[in-house]
Amino acid sequence: MPVPLRARPAVLVATLASVAALAALLVSLTASPAAAQVTLARCVGTRDVAMSPGLNDVRRDVTFDTRNTLDACVSLTPPLLTSATSSSLVTAPRSCSDLVGRAATTSVLTWSTGATSTLSYTIDTVFAAGQIVNTQQGTVVAGRFAGASILGVVALVADLTQCATPTGITSTSGPYTLTFLGA
Question: How far, in Å, CA of 152 to CA of 41, rounded?
């Protein structure tokens, strides 16, 4: 039986570095020379996901209840932002063998100042280095940074041996980075 990734800190650190490099590459690919984008704000924290019913080897509609705690934010414009929280609910047909895919959702991010940003985005899911990696791309449709592009990357740590059980994977979490880009 494989050892869960959380028991291998060196592998986790290397994986997180790879995910950060992937995020930087995606940011560079989304910015065209004619419309160079600047980073308006960047936040890091944790994403916690509860799945109902649990994710296992049977394809079925699964509701992903996501809670984001971004406890380290840096912004370029006042009022300065220090943290943010958000949540979202997405239901999609999934199993452990077909996690790769795309889903669309919206969520409201509440900043440390009390201001909000309404985000509309797609989430692409892939497997990378033994983790479930979500890449989120979209726009801020209302509130702070309205009109800005967003790019989020999260590497979820899950014990994939649970896929073979009737209950399946019912929760997972991992580091989350969210960047706001504007002209």
Answer: 12
